[in-house]
Amino acid sequence: MTLPPVSSAHVFGPVTSGRLGRSLGIDLLGEKICSFDCLYCEVKPTTRLILDRREWVPTAQLLDELRQWRDAGHTPPEVLTLGGSGEPTLHSGLGAIIAGCKALFPNLPVAVLTNSSLMHLPEVRRELQAADMVLPSMDTLIEAEYRRLNRPHRQVDLQRMAQGLLAFRQEYTGRLLLEILLSKGINDSNANLAALQDYVARLQPDRVDIVTLSRPGAYPEAVAVDAATLGRWRATLCGHAPTTACAPLLCASEPLPRQDPETLAQAVLASLSRRPQTALQLAQALHAPAVAVQLALEKLQQSGHIQHRGSKTDDPSEQFFSAI
Ligand code: SF4
């Protein structure tokens, strides 16, 4: 099987996001460039721990790839999500990229994932104004937990970051969906829960998503919390935001389109190069029949393009795969 080099593509998916629905991703970095090196990162360990804003991938190239994707006649996604291999606000062309996405897909919402580390910068907050949804993370307000879990660049100050996000909330008129990821024995402390309870009350996000690891993280120290802990956190933080959950915002209802096996295998490989997924997650994300995805996975395994990445249970459908 002949497959293109997946590292050249900055538009990936669509993938099914538990928080956003069927999302077409745009990778603004091109490699693992981030201001954090989180234990739980789904991408991989950070190779460039950095705080400089640069045009890491030319803006014109990103928008050109997006235009090509649109013109190829794919089933439209439900949302465009700026994220990818690292922290998207590190791209200095963020504002122009959001504007370009809206020009190419005037009927789709644009979402931006961020770890909040650059929220203290007025220019970043200004550029994010044009996004329909911003999804910031704030896993902990306890300094020792933050250093252990998020492993930040030494110049990312936790208190300054938290204040920056509060300032953004004051200015921003779009939807703010806060994510708190819990890792067992690290940031699931009562001290963090109390601090975040106060913080969420002040932030007033449109929604809080309390989540835990659902895939293997970059480092083995990151372990999921149990359902009881998740439930306790959700119950405590509920009431400070209109919604506290992990449900998709949007849902799809179009029939599954036919795809030739080669094209589907390329889409599966491109998706797995971004994050580990199960066959079921891939089928939902790519809007493809589960049987066809399973066949593509088998072919990709035989040709040495993908590998197993573990499983939550013995059920084969829950096995994770990632690109090699
Ligand atoms: S999880 Fe997000 S913020 Fe953390 S290292 Fe990965 S890309 Fe960066």
Structure description:
The protein is α/β, with parallel strands linked by helices. The chain folds into 2 domains: 239 residues, Alpha-Beta Barrel (TIM Barrel); 63 residues, Winged helix-like DNA-binding domain superfamily/Winged helix DNA-binding domain (Arc Repressor Mutant, subunit A). 34% of the residues lie in helices and 18% in strands. It is built from 10 helices and 12 strands. The strands form 3 sheets. An 8-stranded mixed beta sheet has the order 1-2-5-6-7-8-9-10. A two-stranded parallel ribbon has the order 3-4. Helix 9 crosses helix 10. It is globular and about 50 Å long. The protein starts with 10 loop residues before the first strand and ends with a strand. The N terminus is likely disordered. The site of iron/sulfur cluster (SF4) has 10 residues, from loops.
